[in-house]
């Protein structure tokens, strides 16, 4: 039974643990890192590394989605972002970065981002961006919010989207609305011929509900990072080690319930270092969703700045626009090295590979069984 901690008379809280609270325990066996596989597969789509990009314009352009795909991951374009609203997106991103860098008003860049997102979504621009990805031969993935999923999805499928990501800060199996018809994910997913990844969630029950909608993957977390301000704005927090482990338990129970249907768990948040990626997989994730840790790549669209898609919310933004030190490392070096950084911010998946080798595991599914210890 999970620890219940009394926080006051008649009020308890459930104890949860962050990735920083746990550590991986070496086993009796080690192996060569050359014998380790980082491959994973969702539906019919196989990837060389367990990487899904956080769908933010700061990290994912059509060009970087292609590059991520060429490097073995899955780049997810935000179908409600700037690439769907403006023709000269590079100039718009430069304006946002300049406002964040030069303005004495810390809110100026957020206001500009909100203004840019007030432009209507243009299906021709979105189709052009997706065509660039499709023509490269990599898997095409796009993100929609639950509020606009039914409206945008037909055009996304017509443009060649192969994996659909339905993502909000917090998502449920059925959104209750006073006005209009709510999105029923079970019905929505059941009518599609492409795999759907949905999230984010933070507990066992919601993860199980999403799995029962027919989702091929469930996102755990809301992109916690130095930029995200969801906890400050909404008071909602996700202790990632506990949340991933709970979702993995839901995956196991759903596998038994359905007689063999496997739903992938994708960790999204608190993933700054290669060791964090290793611990997320060790807690039960099949893949990780990275955003902020990719922002420093020299080929990142926002030139070292980062924000989540929630930064552009018209009335309640939940992300800062944060700048990072410049880097000469491109995406390939950031993911695979070589690295001279001793803290695990470069060669992210080389670090995961080495962690698996040091503990004797050959693939990601095996590594989910590695021992963990609690700090302190």
Distance between the termini: 20 Å
Count the DSSP helices: 13
**Overall pLDDT confidence:** 92
Give the name of the CATH architecture.
Alpha-Beta Barrel
**What's the CATH class, please?**
Alpha Beta
Largest sheet entry: 8 strands, parallel
- Lateral arrangement of strands in the main beta sheet: 6-13-12-11-10-9-8-7
CATH level-four homologous superfamily name: Aldolase class I
Shape: globular
Protein name: GuaB3 family IMP dehydrogenase-related protein
Family: Belongs to the IMPDH/GMPR family.
Keywords: NAD, Oxidoreductase
InterPro entries: Aldolase_TIM, IMP_DH, IMP_DH-rel2, IMP_DH_GMPRt
What do these coordinates show?
The chain is 34% helix and 18% strand. By secondary structure, the protein is an alpha/beta fold. It has one domain (18-374): Alpha-Beta Barrel (TIM Barrel), CATH 3.20.20.70. α10 links the parallel β12 (264-269) and β13 (287-290).
Brief account:
The protein has helices at 62-70, 89-102, 108-117, 123-136, 149-158, 185-190, 204-212, 230-234, 240-258, 274-282, 331-336, 348-358, 364-367; strands at 4-8, 11-14, 22-25, 40-42, 45-47, 51-53, 76-78, 141-144, 163-167, 196-201, 217-224, 264-269, 287-290, 305-306, 322-323, 371-374.
